Every structure is written in C-alpha cells, then in structure tokens.
C-alpha cells in the first residue's frame, strides 16, 4: 500500500464521522512529524545536490542511516538533529502545534 492511499483512506474515514481513539490520533501525529522531517531532509539534500553518502560523510553517519531518516523509519535524537543541520549547512526549525507540524531547514548563508 502506498502512503498516498493510506492517507486518503484515513482522511476519508475521519471526514465521514469516524472517531479515532486517542492512541490512534497520537500515533498518526508521530507519523506526520516523522514524514515532515524526512521530507525536509530530502528536500534540503536535493537543494544542495548531495547524495545520501555525501550527507552521511558530512554528519559522521552511514548512508543507511540517512536512508532510514529520509524514509521516516527512525526517530532522531537531539544530537542527531544538530549533526544533520550542520551537515546540510542549515538551521533547523521545527514548529509543533495542533494538527500541524512544520519542519524546515534554512540555509545559514540566507539567515
């Protein structure tokens, strides 16, 4: 099953009046945050025209770890967030609130 279909199915059920349990809503929020972070890392890496291996080398990680991060398969620690921001020559901003998570890397030279 692809992620798009999963999201649409969930959103459709909620819009039709299906009420999620608190646990399910919490898990969905965690997944949304992981996916927002994964997309931000991928987008910044692409903007810099870097491979996963190049980012991994800059951050002192393995290419497999970068792949897991971009695949939303890992929960990053604070030290890992710092290493990634440094490796991507950026400042990392994370805004959390309500049903919205925003993760952005801002080019240090632009700040």
From TrEMBL:
Signal sequence coordinates: none
HTH cro/C1-type domain mapped to chain residues: 41-95
Annotated InterPro entries: Cro/C1-type_HTH, Lambda_DNA-bd_dom_sf
Listed SUPFAM superfamilies: lambda repressor-like DNA-binding domains
Sample GO molecular function, one term: DNA binding
Pfam families per the UniProt record, alphabetical: HTH_31 (PF13560)
Name of the featured protein: Helix-turn-helix domain-containing protein
Organism: Streptomyces ficellus
């Amino acid at each position: 099953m692809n992620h798009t279909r999963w999201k649409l199915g969930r959103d459709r059920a909620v819009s039709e009046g299906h009420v999620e349990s608190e646990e399910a809503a919490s898990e969905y929020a965690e997944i949304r945050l992981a996916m927002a972070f994964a997309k931000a890392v991928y987008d910044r890496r692409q903007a810099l025209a870097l491979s996963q291996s190049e980012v991994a080398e800059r951050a002192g990680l393995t290419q497999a770890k970068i792949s897991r991060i971009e695949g939303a398969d890992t929960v990053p620690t604070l030290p890992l967030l710092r290493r990634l921001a440094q490796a991507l020559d950026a400042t990392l901003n994370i805004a959390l609130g309500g049903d919205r998570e925003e993760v952005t890397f801002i080019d240090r030279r632009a700040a």
